[in-house]
Amino acid sequence: MRELKKIHPAVLGVYFVCVLGILMFLNNPVIILTSLFSGALLIFLLKRFELKSLVFSLVLLLLICISNPIVSHKGITPLFYFNSKPITFESLIYGLFFALMLIAVIVWCKALNSVIGSDSFIYLFSKVLPKTALILKLSLRFIPLFKEQYHKTKNSVKVLGLYNGNKKIKSEIRVINSVIAFMVENSIETARSMNARGYNNKNHSRYQIKKFELSDFCFLALTVVLSVFTVVFKKEFYFYPKFSTINFSACYITFFALSIIPALIILRGELKWKFLISKI
Amino acid sequence: MEILNIKNLSFSYPEREEKAIDISEFSVKKGDFVLLCGKSGCGKTTLLKLLKKEISPFGTLSGKIELNTKNIGFVFQNPDEQIVSENVNSEFAFGLENLNISTEEISLRIAETSSYLGISYLINKKTDELSGGEKQLVNLGAVLAMRPELLLLDEPTAFLDPISAKKFIDLLLRINRELGITVIIAEHSLNEIFAFASKVCFMEEGKVSCYDTPQAVAKILKNNEFERALPSSVRIFNALNLKEEAPLYVSKAREMIENNFKADKFEFETNSFEKNALCVKNIWFRYEKKSADVLKGVNFQLKQGEILSILGSNGSGKTTLLNVLSRICEPYSGKITVFGKNIKKINGNSLYQNNLSYLVQNPVSVFVKQTVFDDFKEIEKDEKVIKEFAEKFGVSHLLKCNPFDLSGGEMQKCALIKVLFKRPKILLLDEPTKSLDAVFENELSIILKQIKDKGTSIIVVTHNVEFAAEISDRCGLLFNGVLSAICEKHKFFSQNQYYTTASSRITTGVFENTVLQREVVAVCQKQKG
Fold first, then answer.
1. Would you say residue A249 lies in a domain?
2. How near does any CA of chain A get to the CA of B382, in Å?
3. Rounded to 5 degrees, what angle do the CA atoms B122, B123, B129 make?
């Protein structure tokens, strides 16, 4: 975890964009399964695995698997007829892999979220879109404030006897209204505080959280090379009307190598630590 | 050398006739620690904001403000509202980035400032994880990192508990002494700070009434309405008409009492209450299955027609206790009975109807409508009654205001009235004196005593020892989830040595049972004949 956070956020950003891009645009079952495997491994190593999200993933999988063949009747192998429309094997499998891809994307986004904190994310943005980055920064600050005020308001409305369990929606709207009014008032003071600290000055500098080091360059180079290889040697795969055959291709190897890097970095860090301890 | 010079300054807000600020002359020397005080709405905040150009309010300004520095730092009242960033580190960096400083220097300044203030352990935290006191220290640090020569603070401790407030003030004094930064601070609670200010400026209706050393101001403020804000030692001294110098802190006042008076005792009356209003038996509570217990077997009874104060430090579970009593949270073990009826068997909202009411901390959340009047109407349908109540509590002029435009004291009063429309038999109050000045605090204690005399039982949860001593019949200390033996207030405060009123600390060993300033004065006057 810490090993990954040492890497420059811009490099990590490029890495995640590459993995997610290849995963989404190649739409190849082998790539999907590979990314799912290494993504899951990464999440596990980051200690971000949750039973709740596993259940959610399984529900999503089931839902898409069932709904896709009902809507789409392409494919040549009918399993049975439903409402005098064919339910095809190809459509079922397409649904399955589409769902798996979605789950892989979710898993990777989760990893991205825990590796690149919001501060690094904003830092990346602030060079390109300084104003958007500031708004993002302020909104992130407002979310916990909003939550807290929501609970406070709800409690005080409850004890005034104005929270009616039978008219829940109306009562909730009342609470939210009050919270929004509070937040608007709040933001005026925030703006004042920003002005008082020279936000209106003409020249701003940027506080660099991390420096670009040689290891960052290596990571970046590796990412770019492996991604380019994967894209160049890519294999097209068709689900309809009939599955195309899966032949071995170099792109599978390169993608596997690409997607396993962060997990390896974490593992290396942990092994190194274990090794150090055993020496002591 | 003077850092600030004001000549014939006047300022009025748009569409208002009266002048918010009207100062003929005011100057501050470099390195001074100036305390601005006065009733709410006397123009303290306006004056401070006028000194900082970037946040000056709109209005008509005339006269001259001469500042011999460009680096002015400003710390606001509410710790939450002035924080911009999600992380402490970037909060520090925010101001420095605006100064166009290189990354190396930013890192250095953050490191230096946070170590100096002793908050380096906070640097990697998220700002919403901090306590109020820590947030305000971060705000101070973020401003100090910009290396101001003049530091302006607008009631920075109003939202803090007394311990954090004291820590904050101590740091400010240190900054002033060690770094020579000039400080101008507006404050409403003067107990901790009054003795240490190099000069005190007392304002009334936008004018500077007096501007002198604390000793001199203490004498001038005698018999002024604002005298209540002064430290107990000064007030006792003023009431006794002694000829010496006014003692500014406890040890001096003690010396004065020991030299002039002999050992004595204050005879107090005990009110006896019989019937129980609320009965709490062995309450256990925790927020989550795996978290630690917050309440660990709380037992007590609230008698009909009494005021019970529950004191305790931050995180001792005071607010949680009120949440449990008002059924916001369910205890996992124990029993609460309200007038002999199990609280669990009272259906839905009927607990809050003409029975038990609870006024939460920072009562902004009580208001939802455009005007105070509409807010009142939400509970009390009869307009006549609303006007009657408003008249009685002196808030008639506020009925047409937007609740958000009220000052802290006015808001607390209106929120209390809104709760009183429920005609509660039991009233729970959480930190009612937070962000109130001494004058409002006094008004509040008068109101609470009135309500009590009509038969309402009140529980007040507070940090404010002086307030608790003033209003309560009995007091108890909540510590580590357990409520210690509750006893009569004179007994409670005179047996405590640290957690007690200034009057009691001044007179321990000489007088017995003197916990309030007026009781000390009564005993002294009895001896003088």
1. yes
2. 17
3. 50
pLDDT band, very low/low/confident/very high, at B408 (cuts 50, 70, 90): confident
Look at residue A280 in the predicted model and tell me its pLDDT.
66
Residue A104's Cβ-count burial label (10 Å; 0-12, 13-18, 19+) is buried
Q: Which residues contact B75 (CB under 8 A, 6 or more apart)?
A: B82, B136, B139, B140, B143, B151, B152, B153, B154, B156
Q: Give yes or no: residues A221 and A158 share one domain.
A: no
- CA A77 to chain B, closest CA, distance in angstroms equals 53
Q: Which domain holds residue A92?
A: 2-122+207-278
Which chain B residues are closer than 8 Å to A191 by Cβ? none
State the nearest Cα–Cα gap between A34 and chain B, in angstroms: 36
One domain for residues A90 and A33: yes
ipTM of the complex: 0.83
Helix and strand numbers, DSSP H then E, in chain A: 10, 2
Contact across the interface for A196 and B86, Cβ inside 8 Å: no
CA dist list (Å): B262 to B16, B172, B254, B317, B516: 56, 39, 12, 41, 18
Q: Closest residue of B to A192, CA-based?
A: B55
As given in the structure block, the two tokens for residue B9 are 């300054």
Same-domain pairing of A27 and A165: no
Residue B90 to residue A119, Cβ atoms within 8 A: yes
Our CA-based measurement puts residue A44 at a distance from the nearest CA of chain B, in whole angstroms, of 23
A92 in the same domain as A222: yes
A178 → closest Cβ in B146, B365, B419: B365
Residue A202 lies in a domain: no
Q: Which residue of A has its CA nearest to B368?
A: A178
- For B22-65, write each residue's pLDDT tens digit: 999 999 999 999 999 988 878 899 999 999 999 998 999 999 99
Q: Residue A201, Cβ neighbours under 10 Å: how many?
A: 13
Nearest-angstrom CA–CA distance, B315 and B309: 17
Nearest CA in chain B to A145: B128
Q: Which of A196, A227, A253 is the last residue of a domain?
A: A196
- If asked whether residues A76 and A186 sit together in one domain, one would say no
Show residues of chain A in contact with B101, CB under 8 Å.
205
- For B378, the 3-state DSSP assignment is coil
Three-class DSSP category at B108: helix
CA B141/CA B139 separation, integer angstroms: 5
Last residue of a domain, one of A196, A224, A251: A196
Q: Each residue of B214-251: pLDDT tens digit?
A: 999 988 888 888 888 899 889 988 888 877 788 888 88
E strands, B316-360, are: 333-338, 341-342, 356-359
User: Tell me, what's the pLDDT at A1?
Assistant: 61
Q: Are residues A227 and A186 in the same domain?
A: no
User: What residues in A contact B363, CB-CB < 8 Å?
Assistant: 156
Would you say residue A201 lies in a domain? no
DSSP 3-state of B281: strand
How many residues can be counted in chain B?
529
Residue B207, pLDDT score: 93
User: In percent, how much of chain B has pLDDT > 70?
Assistant: 100
Task: Provide CB contacts within 8 A for A96, sequence distance 6+.
Answer: A61, A64, A65
Judged by DSSP in three states, A57 sits in helix
Q: For residues A48 and A180, state if they share a domain.
A: no
Helical H segments across B3-68, by residue range: 44-51
Q: Are residues A108 and A222 in the same domain?
A: yes
| Domain assignment of residue A84, yes or no | yes
Give how many domains chain A has, as a whole number. 2
Amino acid letter for position B463:
H
pLDDT value of residue B72: 94
Could you tell me the pTM of the whole model?
A: 0.83
